[in-house]
Amino acid sequence: MGKVKQETLQLAGGNHNSNRRELDYYPTPKEATIALIEFLTLPKDKVIWEPACGDGAMSKVIENYGYKLFSSDIRKDVYGESERDFLKYSIKNIDAIITNPPFNLAEQFIIKSVKEASVVALFGLLRS
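User: That's the sequence. What structure does it adopt?
Assistant: Structure tokens below.
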């Protein structure tokens, strides 16, 4: 792997599995969520689900834009609804899913998200 790619992986927390945080918890920088929300320009009446909310880093930004938001996470003591496993839980009438999923479950999050909502935006790490 080239030097640039390795540095990119380390910045994103995507290094060897033995060095990963518990439940792949890596809060999303506020600026990344702002850029995404401004890019999407969703109507304000859309209901958004952030199913890996952690400490609310993304949720707080989304709420500041005036969207109706449901935040949840598999972990305890989180910003939103705790102990809600996105892969086993569903919500009716969700228009969009916006999240930074755990890297080790990214594929499952993608598959479920496209079934749950018409708009899906997931942060992640691409490997080549």
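The chain has one domain: 27-122.
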